[in-house]
Please model this.
Amino acid sequence: MLQLVYVSSVNPAAAPVAPEPILAVARRLNARDDITGLLYSDGQRFLQALEGPEEAVEAAFARIQADPRHRAIMLLSRRITSRREFGDRDMAHHTSADDLDTFLHRIRALVARASDDVRATFEGFVEVRRAA
Model:
């Protein structure tokens, strides 16, 4: 099973799109392709882990790289895992109304089964974005 972790920024030149339709399409495609993982978004940045069959994960990442709503996409890790670390796909999306401590607690729960490196990446990213 392949796991990719990447970070990207929202492209300010792209037309704004509501997150709900994007999530609906992503969930449908990921269910079809047996991909799970975690997507963190705060409206400006994305941090995502994708895991599943190697060809399916690579194809999903290629779609993301071609999506004009992303810019500055950086692959943080690519590794083969023996098991899914995220189970069902989930999304953590921060809005200005969210309590930041509660949000960080949610992220920690979502990454509890992830490898030490992946867990530290998500927790550190949320802390940095919280300080921004």
